[in-house]
Amino acid sequence: MLRFVPFTIVVLCLTSLAIDSVHARDETRKPNVIIILADDLGYSDLGCYGGEIETPHIDALAARGVRYTHFRNMGRCCPSRASLMTGCYPHAVEMGWMTAVDEHRPGYRGQLTHRQPTIAELFKAAGYETYMVGKWHLTLDDAFRHGQASNGSWPIDRGFNHSYSGLGGGGEYYKRDDMIRDDKRLPNTAEQQGWYYTHAITENAVAYLNSHDFDQPLFMYIAHYAPHRPMQAPAERIARIRDRYAPGYDALRAQRFERLRELEIIAPNADEHRNPTAYANGLPAWDSLTDDQRQKWIKEMATYAAMVEIMDDGIGQVIQTLKDKGELDNTLIIFLSDNGATAEGGTISRFAADLSNTPFQYYKKDSYNGGISSPLIFHWPDGIKHNLGGLVESPSHIIDIMPTAIEAAGVPFVKNDPGTIRPQGVSQFPFDEKTAAMQRAFYWEHQTGRGVSQGEWKLVSYHQNRPWQLFNLNEDPFERHDLIAAQTARAQKMQRMWQDWARKNNALPLETTSWTQRIKKYKQRNPDQDGID
To answer: Cα separation of 45 and 353, whole Å?
Structure first.
């Protein structure tokens, strides 16, 4: 059921988005479409999702749009981006793992198949000017690490007229050697005084908007790197925030949990006062940490929050530019994250991610809700006529973004070749509750972690060597009470569902070797690989 809730967090910042169209709505005009993707942002980090991080511009989008409470992604950078670009599960478009290596087997080629059109290719074919700024991470690593020209998988090759992008998935915020503009490699950014990745993404997005002739509609993909590791932000921004995190994660988790209940993003009668992750992941009490551990955690969270707030500042600049050009009301803006917060930095990073992923358990890469849950906001004053500021509880998935965007814009789906498949996602337009969606089945696989959900039931396994677990999400949305012993027949049915999906989508056989050994294994088989054949 779609609900309307008090939204005091957002209403206070509406002045930054108090918009009157410069001209009356022309129903024949195609809407602009902008997708903004955060990287490793936790479910409750944003102000409009209960967080203490100050995100007034994103919150304002939510106040004049809709927020989804049950939106899921694919749990990690590359698979989620593949699904975002194609509307399909990643294995179905040959991006089932990462860009680290081409495994030369269906489902795991290390970059997107050309058989499937990207969202940019569809918008471009429909007469849109297309732009991309930020993190790409859909080109095989060996195809750009040694300075080569494009192997056909750069943004410019996959439907974007213009791009300012980082090809890789890692790196620093103050220096990078993987940046491209259109079809040209750019010099190492360490040579540019004061260069900071998030600022550069914003500057180039705004420059593209300022140079665009809005007699033609645009599609823009803004793929932020923030708040992906490493934790890097200007010192003055970190210092401004440090005191906010001095109370520690016990107090801040409890505060987030209460705000989530007040906003009705989780049930008002949710029975956990604290983040249930504390029980699932063995998080120690804040007071039990050493002073050194507490100070490291405060610094990490303050840096993380600064990175998110700098990203929000940039989103505000994009919004203001659209407003100045009289195009904000005619622009569908979609905001989401590619996965949950990460524990990749070690113990302190895990403790930080436990706060970011409140109220869920586990982390980026995992098929539990902490790894696959994301904020999702749709903002479009000319296209969303009802439910402004409301919540949509229908389950949705990142494979739905492309079908939603093209339906809202009236863009047809055109096949690339006879091997093209229809998008596997379902359009969310017109962004309201859909009863039929409640029984949709969703699937996950990453590094042998697996999951399938349908209706209130979810079957999930942390790793192929770990047992399956079964949860009733209506009664236990935080996945703490395993019911598989009492629901054997249901669990077996859902296992068969997962196996059938995995077979049809080229997820099998699963690769059980470690990251390093996996790369070594497939490079030994194909030592001269430099891209998809």
So the answer is: 10
| CB count in 10 Å sphere of residue 485 | 8
Provide the residue range defining the domain that includes 428.
8-17+31-440
Q: Which amino acid is at 205?
A: A
Q: What digits encode the pLDDT tens for the residues 444-501?
A: 999 999 999 999 999 999 999 999 999 999 999 999 999 999 999 999 999 999 999 9
Radius of gyration of the chain (CA): 22
For 40, residues 6+ apart whose C-beta sits below 8 A from its C-beta are 227, 228, 229, 337, 338, 339, 340, 341, 342, 364
Give the number of domains in the chain. 1
Q: Look at strands 331-337 and 32-38 and give their pairing.
A: parallel
Contact 82, 485 (CB under 8 A): no
The per-residue b/e assignment along 203-230, b for 16 or more CB within 10 angstroms, e otherwise, is ebbbebbeebebeebbbbbbbbbbbbbe
Residue 288 contacts by C-beta under 8 Å, 6 or more apart in sequence?
none
Confirm whether 181 is domain-assigned: yes
CA distance 323 to 21: 8
Q: Global pTM?
A: 0.93
- Asked whether residue 483 is assigned to any structural domain, the reply reads no
Handedness of CA 140, 143, 144, 149 (dihedral sign): negative
DSSP string for 332-360: EEEEEESS----TT-HHHHHHHHHHTTTS
Q: CA–CA separation, 471 vs 478, rounded Å?
A: 9
Helix (H) or strand (E) holding 504: helix 488-504
Rounded CA gap, 60 and 519, in Å?
43
Look up the CATH number of the domain holding residue 169: 3.40.720.10
The secondary structure of 446-500, three-state, reads ECCEEEEEECCEEEEECCCCCCCEEEECCCCCCCCCCCCCCCHHHHHHHHHHHHH
